Each structure stands twice: as structure tokens, then as C-alpha cells.
Amino acid sequence: GDSVTQMEGPVTLSEEAFLTINCTYTATGYPSLFWYVQYPGEGLQLLLKATKADDKGSNKGFEATYRKETTSFHLEKGSVQVSDSAVYFCALSVSGNYGGSQGNLIFGKGTKLSVKP
Amino acid sequence: NAGVTQTPKFQVLKTGQSMTLQCAQDMNHNSMYWYRQDPGMGLRLIYYSASEGTTDKGEVPNGYNVSRLNKREFSLRLESAAPSQTSVYFCASSDPRTDTEAFFGQGTRLTVV
Questions:
Q1: With a CB-CB cutoff of 8 Å, which residues 37-76 of chain A face chain B?
Q2: Which of A30, B34, B90, B95 suits B47 as a labelling partner, its CA being 20 to 30 A distant?
Q3: Does B101 reach chain A within 8 Å, measured CB to CB?
């Protein structure tokens, strides 16, 4: 079945360091791919998404490119801030109804990022 | 801008007690979902509802029931709570016909003792 594998955490970086969180997936069909972020004590918020191969999602300085050939969607940011400390989840949408996504999301296990000043 | 609202935010139950988690969305979405979040496990789908009047099992449905009361509301019921159901529960909604993004509530932290 469909699955998402993301790098284990926790990840601890100094402010202004470069961030990469690896994410690979297994899926039938052509899923949409997402990165969600969860700040302490809160629900999940969409950080960025890509709906087809070679698309690049970007938001708040974060980027990820949908790579079909390597089945990857790695999250990157050039210079992290203390405020980026959170748990990051990679996810894919399950193919199904409506000619595309069924809406269900399959999540990786999450990567906790801590950024030190 | 309410989005997805869950109640309660926190709950402690004794083993064997029952309770219902409530969820409502005001975005006119057709699809709604219940996930549970456990340390090191990410989020796992319990049940979902693709439209009003339909519900389907997800990855971990055992011990739960759901009701799609109307288009706005989707409740999750634990009939006889067990310690293994200690978790953080998230409700989400989306409209897959127009956008694949799911919107999440703030979560319910449930402890079963």
C-alpha cells in the first residue's frame, strides 16, 4: 500500500543553518504531496504542497520539489530561525474518487526540529 | 475564521467509560476525517466520511464508531475506552474535488486511565 518514509529526528540546528528533511514515498497512481507543520500544542498546518511531478512547493522560505524519478519530496530551507522549531510531517494524498485524490492523507512519522539561537 | 473546531480539548476517562468527540467545520467541505497521533507513529486514519451519509474505515478503526450528522459535523465515539486509546485525536476536512489540502482542528488530548 501507499506509504511515506521521512528522516527520523530529532534534528537540532543553530539559527541560520541549512535545513534538509528527507521524505520518500511509495504510491500507486500520482498522489499529491504535502509538508505539514505542527507547532507545540497546536494542530497541523499546511506548509506547502505539490500536485504533480516536477512541481515545487514553497512557503515561508521552505521549498520541496516533487521528484517522481526518485519518489522523493525533501523539505529544505536555506536559513532556519528559532521560530521554525516544530514537528514537520510529510504526507501524500490517497488516489481514489473524484478522478484524483480521495482526500485521505498518509503521513510520515514526523521530524522534530529544534533551532537554537 | 473558525475552520475546524473540535471539542473537548482535553479529557481524562477511566477504562470502560464512553465518550464522544465532536467536530464541526464551516468550510462547506464534503469530506471529513478522524486521525489519531501517537509518539513515533505520525498520524493514522481512524475513519473518514467522503460525503454526508457515508463513512468508511481507515487504518485503525477498532474500538471506535463515527457519525456524520450532517455536512458540518462528524463525531467520533469511544464506546468502552481502553488505555491503548490514549492519544491526541485530530479532526480534519477537505474537498478533494477542488483542492487536496486538508484543514485540521486543534486536537483533543485524551488520556484513559
A1: 42-46, 49, 51
A2: A30
A3: yes
The whole-angstrom separation of Cα B4 and Cα A109 is 23
Question: By C-alpha distance, which of B53, B7, B10 is closest to B30?
Answer: B53
Q: Which residue of B has its CA nearest to A42?
A: B106
For chain A, the average pLDDT equals 90
Q: What is the DSSP letter of A19?
A: E
What's the pLDDT tens digit per position in B75-85? 999 999 999 99
pLDDT at B2: 75
Q: Which residue of B has its CA nearest to A48?
A: B101
Q: Give B52's DSSP letter.
A: T
| Nearest Cα to Cα of residue B79 among B91, B68, B63 | B63
d(CA B41, CA A87): 13
Q: What angle do CA A94, A99, A100 make, to 5 degrees?
A: 30
Q: For residue A22, how many other CB atoms are within 10 A of its CB?
A: 16
Judged by CB atoms closer than 8 Å, whether chains meet at B43 and A105 is answered as yes
Distance CA A1, CA B44 (A): 14
Give the end-to-end CA distance of chain B in Å, rounded to a whole number.
Answer: 35
Pairing mode of beta strands A111-116, A11-14: parallel
Contact A44 B31 (CB under 8 A): no
For CA atoms A87, A27, B51, B82, the dihedral sign is negative
d(CA B26, CA A104) in angstroms, rounded, equals 19
Separation between Cα atoms, residue A71 and residue A93, nearest integer Å:
14
